[in-house]
């Protein structure tokens, strides 16, 4: 696919829920494209419709109007080419299966032959630094390690798009920094397209090549900001750069505007 052709295309997406006391307009109008191999962060105030957007993107919820297309095909059910990593790793792994079997499960469901499956699982676990934990159970691992298993499962599936829904919200700060670096490394090593949802402004700037800022609900895209930091990022030097501070200030100001319900200024 040529570089300029979008892999994922969201057009005039609207979602209105039928609530108990009448319609709830969650998403007013969202339009954006993601090119193959991009790493895009989506950030917005609490309740702005991030989960609703992800459910529409991943084919779990039909939009009220508008469309989502992946590789030119309209998404109306969970697409094979997409893997999703959720915040709640504790609930996404099966406690009675070993790490090896948890990671291999989607491949087994797809009918991948055993020998190939085991090799792919071992490679994916080595990628996330858990090559030694194949025969352990999720409950024997720390929260950060469990989230690495969930990431390995998504990677083993070899998706074209990896969607991550606030995946590090439940881990401590040090583990979170390690996992952020893991996502950057996997993105660079595997060339996968990543859509990363977070409400952490610093995280969105540190990780993203682009940050999409959402308004408060009913949601529109408040700003689409290119992150022009060097490709090689590390927790100490990148976060200490003056440009990092400028970018985080821009995102912070937009989020504050979004919370106050103000539109984006014309020169932004
Ligand atoms: N099933 C539903 N029925 C009615 N309204 C809903 C439903 N699900 C979400 N909403 C409303 O839609 C809006 C967006 O909700 P959503 O959960 O997508 O936001 P969010 O950005 O993921 O929130 P948070 O950051 O707090 O996780 C909110 O006003 C919410 O109350």
Automatic annotation (TrEMBL):
<dbReference type="InterPro" id="IPR027417">
    <property type="entry name" value="P-loop_NTPase"/>
</dbReference>
<dbReference type="InterPro" id="IPR050166">
    <property type="entry name" value="ABC_transporter_ATP-bind"/>
</dbReference>
<dbReference type="InterPro" id="IPR017871">
    <property type="entry name" value="ABC_transporter-like_CS"/>
</dbReference>
<keyword id="KW-0067">ATP-binding</keyword>
<keyword id="KW-0813">Transport</keyword>
<keyword id="KW-0547">Nucleotide-binding</keyword>
<feature type="domain" description="ABC transporter">
    <location>
        <begin position="8"/>
        <end position="241"/>
    </location>
</feature>
<dbReference type="InterPro" id="IPR003439">
    <property type="entry name" value="ABC_transporter-like_ATP-bd"/>
</dbReference>
<dbReference type="InterPro" id="IPR003593">
    <property type="entry name" value="AAA+_ATPase"/>
</dbReference>
<protein>
    <submittedName>
        <fullName>ABC transporter ATP-binding protein</fullName>
    </submittedName>
</protein>
<dbReference type="Pfam" id="PF00005">
    <property type="entry name" value="ABC_tran"/>
</dbReference>
<dbReference type="GO" id="GO:0005524">
    <property type="term" value="F:ATP binding"/>
</dbReference>
């Amino acid at each position: 696919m040529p570089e300029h052709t979008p892999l994922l295309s969201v057009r005039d997406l609207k979602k209105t829920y039928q609530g108990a006391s009448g319609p709830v307009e969650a998403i007013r109008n969202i339009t954006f494209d993601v090119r193959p191999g991009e790493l895009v962060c989506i950030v917005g105030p609490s309740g702005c419709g991030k989960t609703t957007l992800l459910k529409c993107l991943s084919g779990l919820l039909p939009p009220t109007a508008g469309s989502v297309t992946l590789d030119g095909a309209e998404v109306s059910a969970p697409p094979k080419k997409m893997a999703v990593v959720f915040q709640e790793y504790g609930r996404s792994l099966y406690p009675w299966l070993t790490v090896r079997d948890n990671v291999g499960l989607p491949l087994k469901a797809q009918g991948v032959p055993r020998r190939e499956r085991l090799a792919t699982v071992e490679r994916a676990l080595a990628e996330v630094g858990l090559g030694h934990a194949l025969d352990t159970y999720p409950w024997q691992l720390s929260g950060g390690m469990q989230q690495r298993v969930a990431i390995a499962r998504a990677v083993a599936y070899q998706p074209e798009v990896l969607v991550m829904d606030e995946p590090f919200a439940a881990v401590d700060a040090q583990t979170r920094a390690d996992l952020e670096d893991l996502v950057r490394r996997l993105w660079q090593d595997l060339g996968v397209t990543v859509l990363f949802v977070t409400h952490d402004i610093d995280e969105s700037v540190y990780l993203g090549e682009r940050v999409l800022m959402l308004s408060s609900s009913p949601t529109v895209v408040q700003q689409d900001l290119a992150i022009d930091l060097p490709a090689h990022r590390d927790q100490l030097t990148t976060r200490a750069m003056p440009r990092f501070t400028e970018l985080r200030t821009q995102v912070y100001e937009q989020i504050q505007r979004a919370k106050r319900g103000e539109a984006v200024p014309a020169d932004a």
